[in-house]
Amino acid sequence: MITLLKDKLFYFFYYLSVFWFGLTACLIFWLPYRYRATYICYWNRIIVALARLFIGVNVNLIGRENIPNVPCVIMCKHQSEWETFYLQTVFSSLCTILKKELLRIPFFGWALMQMEPIAIDRSAPKDALKKVQTMGRKRLKQGRSVLIFPEGTRVKVGEKGRYARSGAKLAVASESLILPIAHNAGLHWQNKQKKQAGTITFIIGEPISTTNKTAKQLTDEVEVWIEQQCNTLLATET
């Protein structure tokens, strides 16, 4: 009974925050990016705090010292909504590559637009890749790290999708470091299912240099590291 009540309270405050930040985001569109991003990041911090307070979802962050002091291309496992919120609280300036449909969601999409993401049309892969390369280099030059989920969509815990090379190609073209990230968020934050109390382990790997490496070599290297870390995390939970 108490657990059910906490779940309802979580979703009440979650949707309340979506409504509030989505509505107020429409009033601050004229502000410079850094002010809009800072404001929306408070929303992400609130959601992470609500999950900890009502659901009992805690975080064990490993490897914060690996975050470079220059913009980089972040390649992360994608298992749930949680990492999209949490990453905004870890990195001070972050541009996310996402499907354009998300920006059409009332309130949620309005707030998301203030972060100036790179919204792509997955039904037109060639145009999407071109946009990632063009806008990605622009964002990196502006001092923002670029977040890409190399599998392109959410995958269930223990499963693996096809790793695309777009993130590695961007890193090579811009001569940027690649920062690999693995986690087990899907165990505790399952899409459209009840959230589970527990600790999400979030591992930030050492930056990977693109020097003298092809996009394929880099993608393979990132894939091996991420999948090994995720399999290890899964083994410790079962």
Commentary on this structure:
There is one protein chain. β3, α4 and β4 (118-120) form a beta-alpha-beta unit. This protein has 238 residues and is an alpha/beta fold. It has a single domain, classed as Glycerol-3-phosphate (1)-acyltransferase. α2 crosses α3 and α5 (125-141) packs parallel to α6 (166-174). The radius of gyration is 18 Å and the shape is globular. The protein has seven helices and seven strands. It is 47% helix and 15% strand. The mean pLDDT is 93. It has a seven-stranded mixed beta sheet.
Entry summary:
47% of the residues lie in helices and 15% in strands.
Question: What would the keywords be for this entry?
Answer:
238 residues, 7 strands, alpha/beta, Glycerol-3-phosphate (1)-acyltransferase, 7-stranded mixed β-sheet, globular
Number of beta-strand segments: 7
N to C succession of SSEs: HHEEHEHEHEHEEH
Domains, number = 1
Any guess at the CATH architecture? 3-Layer(aba) Sandwich
CATH C-level class is Alpha Beta
Assembly classification: single chain
Radius of gyration, rounded? 18 Å
Share of β-strand residues: 15-25%
Spatial order of the strands forming the largest sheet:
1-7-6-2-5-3-4
List strands and helices in order, with pairings.
Blueprint: H1 2-25, H2 33-55, E1 57-62, E2 73-76, H3 82-90, E3 94-99, H4 108-113, E4 118-120, H5 125-141, E5 145-148, H6 166-174, E6 178-183, E7 198-204, H7 215-237
Parallel strand pairs: 1-7, 2-5, 2-6, 3-4, 3-5
Antiparallel strand pairs: 6-7
Helix pairs in contact: 1-2, 2-3, 5-6, 6-7
